């Protein structure tokens, strides 16, 4: 089917770069199978084993790696917020709050779900939620996640009513 679609559109596949008859393939840090898409286990291990950053460069590296997989992590924006805020401050000061945020993020990534591949013949469901510090969205089919999206709210948005925050979550999900 894939080869037929490529041919229909005048595209060519390089046989040296193709894999046939496999149960799964690794692609751009993901393992893809008929069950869906999951994080590469080596990347999960690298995240879990990442030591406490001693400077902004190391922290940016950690956030870059975890941020690449944010669609697997429900409420990533809120979980990473203390770490991201540390990037904005003038002085790099590791606190217990930041350490707890890093540990929680590592733990959450360890249990990241397999994201199902979308079936465009079926209905999509979007669940939006807002809490005190952020908004979260999950795109699903048949009660299984396709992707997560979240964002920590700005200082100006924190004082909004909950229905306004949930409306913001819906708008952000559609824009995303």
Automatic annotation (TrEMBL):
The organism's taxonomic lineage, starting at the top: Eukaryota, Viridiplantae, Streptophyta, Embryophyta, Tracheophyta
- Gene3D superfamilies linked: 3.10.20.370, 3.30.70.270
Matching entries from InterPro entries are given as: DNA/RNA_pol_sf, Rev_trsase/Diguanyl_cyclase, RT_RNaseH_2, Viral_Replic_Matur_Polypro
Which residues are in the Reverse transcriptase/retrotransposon-derived protein RNase H-like domain?
A: 94-176
Protein's recorded name: Uncharacterized protein LOC106765974
């Amino acid at each position: 089917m894939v080869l037929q679609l490529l041919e229909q559109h005048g595209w060519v596949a390089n046989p040296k770069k193709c894999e046939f008859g496999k149960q799964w393939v690794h692609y751009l840090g993901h393992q893809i199978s008929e069950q869906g898409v999951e994080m590469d286990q080596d990347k999960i291990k690298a995240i879990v084993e990442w030591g406490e950053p001693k400077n902004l460069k190391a922290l940016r590296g950690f956030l870059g790696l975890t941020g690449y997989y944010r669609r697997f992590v429900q409420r990533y924006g809120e979980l990473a917020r203390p770490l991201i805020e540390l990037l904005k401050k003038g002085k790099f000061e590791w606190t217990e709050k930041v350490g707890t945020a890093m540990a929680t993020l590592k733990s959450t990534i360890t249990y990241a779900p397999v994201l199902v591949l979308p079936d465009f013949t079926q209905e999509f469901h979007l669940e939006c939620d807002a809490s005190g510090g952020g908004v979260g969205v999950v795109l699903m089919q048949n009660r299984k996640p396709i992707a997560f999206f979240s964002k920590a709210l700005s200082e100006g948005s924190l004082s909004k009513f909950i229905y306004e925050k949930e409306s913001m979550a819906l708008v952000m999900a559609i824009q995303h």
